Amino acid sequence: MATAVVVQYRTRPGAAEENQRSIERVFGELAELHPEGLRYTALRMPDGVGFVHVAIVEGETALTDLPAFREFQAGAADRMAEPPVVTRAAVIGAYHP
Prior knowledge:
It comes from Nocardia aurantia. This is ABM domain-containing protein. This protein is an alpha+beta fold. 31% of the residues lie in helices and 30% in strands. The protein has three helices and four strands. The chain has a four-stranded antiparallel beta sheet, covered by helices on one side. Helix 1 runs antiparallel to helix 2. The longest helix has 18 residues, at 16-33.
């Protein structure tokens, strides 16, 4: 069964653009590597400083093993206005046309 991880957080106003660029580097690396068993979405909320990440993982795929993701995490504490809220859940259904 797949597992979903949802991470929600707000950045400091001056750090939102840097945060987005860091996320885009993660997606660039994902596009190069095409890891199996991973669905990953990152959203920037309308307020401009709120972000939501959703990872659905099947099997042993680890997003956190990617160098770009480790770099994203390494600077996250400096960019965030408050600690992230992390929620894990079992996936009971998903639609991917």
